[in-house]
Amino acid sequence: MSDAPVAVVTGAGRGIGRAIAERLVRDGWRVALVDRDGAALDEVRRLADGSADVAAFVADVGDEASVARLADAVRATFGGVRALVNNAGIGGTGTPLEELTLDAWNEMLRVDLTSLFLVCRAFAPDLKADGAGRVVNLGSISARTGVAGSAAYTAAKGGVEAFSRSLAREWAPHRVTVNVVAPGVIDTDMARRRGLDHQRALIPWHRIGRPDDVAGAVAYLVSPEAEFMTGQVLHLNGGAAM
């Protein structure tokens, strides 16, 4: 196993998370792949051709005990962690507010917002000890524009931005940067279920975003070149919100 820095990527089994993990591996990181779907993780893990610099961990990042076990397992495998990429999340339901149940509201916030608190808290000692820690949280264009029928999702993603700004101030003395990448429409299974054609028409750049677009932004934010950027929201939407 190399002595390259370690990144934890949640929601790494597919879509944006998978693209981020693959990019970081190419950039020379050791990567802890985290997802609730063990089968999806196995598929991503195989791309590493058995490298000891990539390991898969099944965890529910919205559950406190599961995150504690995850942190112990990652440390046992790799040692300290330099970067967290909090990508795991569930999408909007398209449910009018009057029909939105409290259980659905709570589940959205648990997975899309509370998970950031749990994962960041669990790995805080590693990030602070490194002196060059990086946190990248995945937000959404929805936090800026709002989306009808997605009040819970939009609230959670707005919370991602507020949480990240506060944590950026709190951890700046430890030289830990905390930033948000807020994608617009990205070509994932979730976006395809909503239909891509009508969404493309709303984007001045006239194309749907690609998972690799997001991966490139994350790769920059965890790099040494981004050392002076913290508490920022990097919007990646082809001009859909300016």
Write up what this structure looks like.
It contains nine helices and seven strands. It has 242 residues and is an alpha/beta fold. The chain has a single domain (6-236), classed as Rossmann fold (3-Layer(aba) Sandwich), CATH 3.40.50. It has a seven-stranded parallel sheet with strand order 3-2-1-4-5-6-7, with helices on both faces. The longest helix has 29 residues, at 102-130.
What key attributes describe this structure?
globular; 242 residues; alpha/beta; Rossmann fold; 7-stranded parallel sheet
Spatially, the strands of the biggest sheet line up as: 3-2-1-4-5-6-7
Low-confidence stretches: none
In terms of structural class, how would the helical and strand content be classed?
alpha/beta
Domain module tally: 1
Determine the strand fraction and express it as a percent band: 5-15%
Radius of gyration: 17 Å
